[in-house]
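This section describes the prediction task in plain terms. A model, or a person checking by hand, is given the sequence of a single protein chain and must write out its three-dimensional structure as a string of C-alpha cells. No templates, partner chains or ligands are provided. The sample shown here is typical of the held-out split.
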Amino acid sequence: MNCLCIIETPDTKDLIKDYLIFKGYKYRFITSEDDFIENIEEFDPNRIILENKYEDVNGVFILKQVLKHFKNSNIEDICFFQHEYEDLSKSLKKYLQQDKICIHSAEDFKIPENAPKTDEKEKLILFVSDDRFMHILIKDLFKTLKYDLIVASDGEEGLEKYLTNLPDLVMTDIEMPKLTGLELCSMIKDDYSENRTPVIIFSSSTRPEDMQEAKKCGADGYLIKCPQLQSIVNKIEYIFANQN
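The expected answer:
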C-alpha cells in the first residue's frame, strides 16, 4: 500500500511517519508547494493524507484537484488530518459526505504502547537527471525492485527532494542545469554529512578526469550509462550490503 502525505507541520509529519511504518505502508511526504498531481501520477498512492490548512493553499483546494484528475485511480481513501484547534469549514463538511473521504486527529495515528516492533521500511532512492528517457528506464526498472523511488529533473530540485525526503541513496547525473551532479554530491557529503547518504554518479562520460572528480566529491560509485541496467541494481545492493 502506498500513502502520499501532503504535510507542512514537522510534528505531524513525524507522527504520521511512525504510524505508516507501523502499518507497513510505503510512503512519500511532500508539501503544498510541490506538484501533488505529478507525485500522484508517479507514486500511484492508495491513500492520501493531507492537512486541512496550509500557508498559501487549503486542503479543500487540493482535494478538489485530486478528485478532478484521479476519478478512476487506485486511491481508496483521502484522509484529512485535523488539528484540534481547527474548525471544520462548510466546504470540507460537504466533501466528508463522500465514502472515500474521512477526517482524523492525532489520536487516530497513535501507535499502541504494546504494539510489536515493526520491520525497517523499504529503502528510498532518489534519482536525479535531466534526461527524461533515463527517467522512464529507471522507473520501469524499479517497478521490479524492492526499493521505493523518487526522481528529480535537475540538481536544484534534487537537493530539495533530498532535504524533504532524506533518501537512503542518491543516484545523480553529472551535467544538469542549475546544479551539477558533482556539486550536488559535494553538498550531500560536506554540508549534510551527518546523514551519511551514499551517492552514485550515473553518467555517459567515460573520461578519467570525471571519474576522478566524482571520487574527490566523495561519491560511493561511478556508473556508465548503458542499456544493461543490471549494473545499477548490483551497485545499489552492494552499497546497502556493506553499510556500517
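For orientation: The two ends are 29 Å apart (CA to CA).
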